[in-house]
Sequence to fold (144 residues):
Amino acid sequence: MVKRTMMKWYEKFSAADGYIIGFVMDKMLYMVEMERIAPRFLNVEEASRNQGDNLRLRLKKAQKQSLAKKAICLGSADVLTADKYNKGENFEKVVTEYFGQEWEKDTIPFYMQGDINVNGRELQIKLDSATLANSKMLEKLKRM
Fold:
């Protein structure tokens, strides 16, 4: 599936009103909120386990430098490996706690709700290299 098509279907089904994306630069962790993830930040890559293609967040160095100008620094990137969870889950935890909320691991899909609700807005939280959706799931949602 081509990127434009995957993005169209992902945006159609996503329950998010916006996004918080995170990245590491110079060993520091940053987050930036945005209404929509720009196509230039996304790649289509082959998924594992026969899931088709992944729509994945992939930030280049220059993009990180540009985003850092309006991003919030959350401190050392060490927090991403400080817990028993993976980096994406640890980032979600740090962001949730930044907003004064209690984090707990969940498995609620992107088409039902965001990862966090801030001021009545459902926000999806994604760390650099995260998968937004795979083509197999998007095809399934199209049929529903």
Observations:
- The chain has one domain: 3-135.
- The radius of gyration is 15 Å.
- The chain has a mean pLDDT of 95.
